[in-house]
Amino acid sequence: MVDEVLREELRLVSVKPSPRQIAYQQMEFNGFIHFTVNTFTGKEWGTGKESPAIFNPTELDARQWIKTAKDAGMKGIILTCKHHDGFCLWPSAYTQHSIACSSYQNGQGDLVKEVCEACKEFGIKFGVYLSPWDRNHHTYGTGKAYDDYFINQLTELLTKYGEIFVVWLDGACGEGANGKVQKYDWERYYETIRRLQPKACIAISGPDIRWCGNEAGVTRESEWSVVPAKLAEPKKIAEDSQQEDNAEFRQKGVDPTQMELGTREKLKDEQQLIYYPAETDLSIRPGWFYHEEEDEQVRSFENLRDIYLKTVGSNAVMLLNIPPDKRGLIHHNDVEVLRKLGDFIRASFTHNLADRSKIVTVPLTDAQGRGGEALRSDSYESFFANAEGEKELEINLVWEEIQRLSYLVLKENILFSQRIERFEVFWENISGEWEAAYQGTVVGYKKIVPLNGLMTKRLRVIIKDARVAPVLSFVGVY
């Protein structure tokens, strides 16, 4: 029986992330920019019949967008280069329904280029969203002819603007102008992306990054990255995605039937497993595009702070949409909240109190003779790995003076997969007694544990259960 349990655990931890997935998780917090003809019509989903002439932002400043993202703490920006309406923010050679036929810069503009160059200036990575659903193009729904069109546009985006960190594809698939629905050739799309941008992740309707399942910023208590391979099937993703503009859908949380995706019980009968880390996508406003009537409905700093801690702090990437207004600027209400969020992130996670603590582990050394000092460096080159079968690990942080502690950060070395299933945190009170501070389940790439300002000289983390053995890479206290 023991051999069977170990054999199953070894199977689970044999599923490991690709370099592109690791790089994506390390970005932690990215921005989405929705901007197209919908900004000027007031719609969320355009019909494809809009005149390109209505697209005319008079004060557009891509640098302002990216500076706002940088100030918020974002590491990457994904631009909606083409939404479902089919309007292209770059002068595509394959359609007239683009910025080249708009009033913006007398048809000489290329917004994809502007945003890409601003990202380079501010040191932020650039990614693209290209909707497979096109409500404008006459070939949509005809099969290969439309796939050729989509591949041509994808090729333009992946060859003209330098390195792309992600191609973001959703599952929306409705009727085109001819009343037909396209059956997407996903494998052909993936092959094109891998060939032209081998470092880019393919997100959501793709094999690299998993949609958390809602647009409300709600996450699971236990977010596993090792999950059944069937979760990456485009048909499954499309079934769970929004197929028409629905405000209620954008506020819906996690489907209760989908709360547990990667537990042993869920995986025991699954023959095909993949490493498929989650991303939580949400908008700073009720809609994905700017609507002036929502100027007073911008998410509060407190709301975004809590979502950040629960997404980035629970083994997921946070993707926050910040839509420019009709002028072509991020509204000042949004800018102010985003600046507060960035200030919070920098103030909360810059100075690691563990740097001046003594770190003692039980066992004192791991299977390779490494001690607690291996957990100081936030790097996969330094880590503490229990011997196979030793599932418990105790980490003690000891200071000479009393410290006020707000957050504990734990990180597994995900090069060895995701392993930790249960852990507890304790602190020593002024009387020398140990009190419970937190009980948690998974850790994964990163877990942020709220400590709520407790005052202590000693903090203890106990890994209670793990698959095969825990492999921890970092412990930080802030």
Question: Would you mind describing this structure in some detail?
Answer:
The protein is α/β, with parallel strands linked by helices and 478 residues long. It has twelve helices and 17 strands. The chain has helices spanning 2-13, 19-27, 38-41, 62-72, 111-122, 144-159, 186-196, 234-240, 247-250, 264-267, 301-311, 332-349; strands at 29-33, 76-82, 125-130, 166-169, 201-204, 210-211, 226-228, 273-275, 278-283, 316-321, 358-362, 384-385, 393-412, 420-428, 434-440, 447-466, 471-477. Strands 5-4-3-2-1-10-9-6 form an eight-stranded parallel beta sheet, sandwiched between helices. Strands 11, 12, 13, 14, 15, 16 and 17 form a seven-stranded antiparallel beta sheet that branches. The longest helix is centred in the last third of the chain and has 18 residues, at 332-349. The protein starts with a helix and ends with a strand.
What strand order characterises the main sheet? Answer: 5-4-3-2-1-10-9-6
Could you name the ranges where pLDDT drops below 50 across 5 or more consecutive residues? none
The biggest sheet amounts to: 8 strands, parallel
User: Into which percent range does the helicity of residues fall?
Assistant: 10-25%
Mean pLDDT: 94
Number of strands: 17
- The general outline is globular
Q: What structural category arises from helix and sheet content?
A: alpha/beta
The total count of helices amounts to: 12
Cα(first) to Cα(last) distance is 43 Å
Please state roughly what percent of the residues sit in beta strands, choosing from under 5%, 5-15%, 15-25%, 25-35%, 35-45% or over 45%: 15-25%
Give, in order, the helices and strands: HHEHHEHEHEHEEEHHHEEHEHEEEEEEE
Please tell me how large the radius of gyration is.
24 Å
